[in-house]
């Protein structure tokens, strides 16, 4: 096999903007496959072709392609001619000694002006292979499907399809900033926004040196994993312990959690705007914990003027855990750590905080000074995939 044929799905529906989406997907593919000796990456009549060199490692290419958003499926393929006999001969050579219990030919043509139809291609080439091999034809549940895609100047043929990550190419959905706790939920929320084409900046609040560095190490691991999908990521580590101490000294215990979260949103908004992000993303789920009742979420959200996106808001824990396992973040998220969300948390937090009560409790806090202090001590780390040598 000398090529990989990449198919997309949603991009085909983008009308006049489709070339821009495809251009970004091609760019992302070139970035993701750097160092694997791929000769060219180019758009070819409704699909993308990766032309491979003899030393291109297919297994590495397959692994990386499976993580790139915007791909519906991809196939290890060869090019062949239009001539039916020559194409069938090349296909049989490519199959080698394979002897499937049954087979079928599935053909498409990219240009309706070609002098044959897709059923004609299937019938003629299938007949040649049947005459030569005697394999059983099964159009419903074949053991082997031979895929043929007729292009104006030749054909692709391949014998299977690898599933892609779906979604939209990274960079097509704008920029957002996600509050990343290191728990199970927020990495899944970040992944979901990445899958919709958003460039996701990651913001982690920690309480070092009051607590250990464990939560920071976890989010670095999670960011490294998510960067394999997004290719570039920025992680912002915000010290929050000193601010929590100020809240403890000046706010009634039951309101602390709500005010912690409001402070986080204020800080995250400033970081997001600096990074030209248009929305904040959280892993909140209605009713999951005390701060995530509808009343509390509303009171917390009023601390920022940015749009807040909650990709998991209607999911239950089992669904989120299943997705975290699927994307690989679960095993990192369950590593025990000391998270700022559990520091100075009261036994009985308010579950129906009223905005006017919360705002009154904040009057005694130097909010702007607290936000500025957090911003001044934020550490920024950049991640890339593939990792620069």
Task: List the topology elements.
Blueprint (H helix, E strand, L loop, with lengths): L2 E5 L10 H15 L5 E6 L4 E5 L5 H8 L5 E10 L3 H12 L7 E7 L8 H16 L10 E8 L2 E5 L3 E5 L8 E5 L5 H11 L3 E8 L7 H17 L1 E8 L1 H10 L5 H19 L4 E3 L12 H8 L5 E3 L7 H11 L2 H4 L21 H8 L4 H10 L2 E6 L5
Parallel strand pairs: 5-6, 9-10, 9-12, 10-11, 12-13
Antiparallel strand pairs: 1-3, 1-4, 2-3, 4-7, 4-8, 6-7, 11-14
Which structural category do the helix and sheet elements fall into? alpha/beta
The number of E-state strands comes to 14
Radius of gyration equals 26 Å
Count the helices. How many?
13
Question: What summary fits the major beta sheet?
Answer: 8 strands, mixed
CATH class of the largest domain: Alpha Beta
Order of helices and strands: EHEEHEHEHEEEEHEHEHHEHEHHHHE
Annotated CATH homologous superfamily of the largest domain: HUPs
Characterization of the model:
The protein is built from 13 helices and 14 strands. The chain is α/β, with parallel strands linked by helices and 389 residues long. Strands 1, 2, 3, 4, 5, 6, 7 and 8 form an eight-stranded mixed sheet that branches. The protein has a six-stranded mixed sheet with strand order 13-12-9-10-11-14, with helices on both faces. Strand 5, helix 4 (118-133) and strand 6 form a beta-alpha-beta unit. Helix 5 (185-195) packs across helix 10 (317-327) and helix 8 packs across helix 9. It is elongated, with a radius of gyration of 26 Å.
């Amino acid at each position: 096999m000398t090529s990989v044929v990449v198919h997309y799905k949603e991009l085909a529906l983008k009308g006049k903007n489709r070339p821009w989406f495809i251009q970004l997907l091609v760019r992302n593919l070139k970035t993701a496959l750097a160092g694997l000796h791929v000769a060219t990456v180019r758009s070819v009549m409704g699909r993308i072709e990766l032309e491979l060199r003899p030393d291109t490692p297919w297994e590495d290419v397959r692994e990386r392609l499976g993580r790139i958003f915007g791909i519906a499926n991809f196939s290890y393929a060869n090019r062949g001619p239009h001539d039916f006999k020559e194409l069938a001969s090349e296909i049989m050579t490519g199959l080698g000694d394979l002897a499937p219990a049954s087979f079928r030919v599935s053909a498409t043509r990219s240009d309706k002006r070609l002098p044959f139809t897709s059923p004609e291609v299937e019938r003629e080439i299938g007949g040649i292979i049947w005459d030569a091999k005697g394999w059983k034809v099964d159009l419903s549940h074949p053991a082997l499907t031979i895929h043929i895609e007729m292009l104006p100047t030749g054909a692709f043929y391949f014998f299977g399809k690898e599933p892609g990550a779906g979604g939209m190419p990274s960079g097509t959905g704008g920029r957002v900033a996600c509050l990343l706790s290191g728990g199970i939920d927020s990495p899944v929320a970040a992944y979901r926004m990445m899958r919709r084409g958003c460039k996701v900046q990651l913001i982690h609040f920690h309480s070092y040196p009051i607590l250990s560095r464990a939560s920071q190490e976890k989010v670095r691991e999670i960011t490294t994993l998510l960067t394999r999908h997004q290719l570039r990521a920025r992680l912002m580590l915000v010290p929050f312990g000193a601010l929590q101490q100020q809240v403890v000294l000046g706010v009634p215990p039951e309101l602390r959690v709500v005010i912690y979260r409001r402070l986080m949103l204020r800080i995250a908004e400033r970081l997001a705007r600096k990074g030209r992000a248009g929305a904040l993303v959280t892993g909140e789920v209605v009713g999951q914990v005390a701060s995530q009742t509808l009343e509390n979420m509303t009171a917390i959200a009023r601390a920022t003027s940015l749009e807040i996106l909650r990709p998991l808001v209607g999911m239950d824990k089992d669904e989120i855990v299943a997705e975290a396992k699927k994307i690989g973040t679960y095993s990192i998220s369950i590593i025990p750590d000391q998270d700022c969300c559990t520091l100075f948390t009261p036994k009985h937090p308010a579950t129906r905080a009223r905005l006017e009560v919360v705002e009154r409790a904040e009057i005694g806090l130097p909010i702007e000074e607290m936000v500025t202090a957090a911003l001044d001590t934020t550490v920024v780390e950049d991640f890339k995939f593939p990792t620069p040598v």
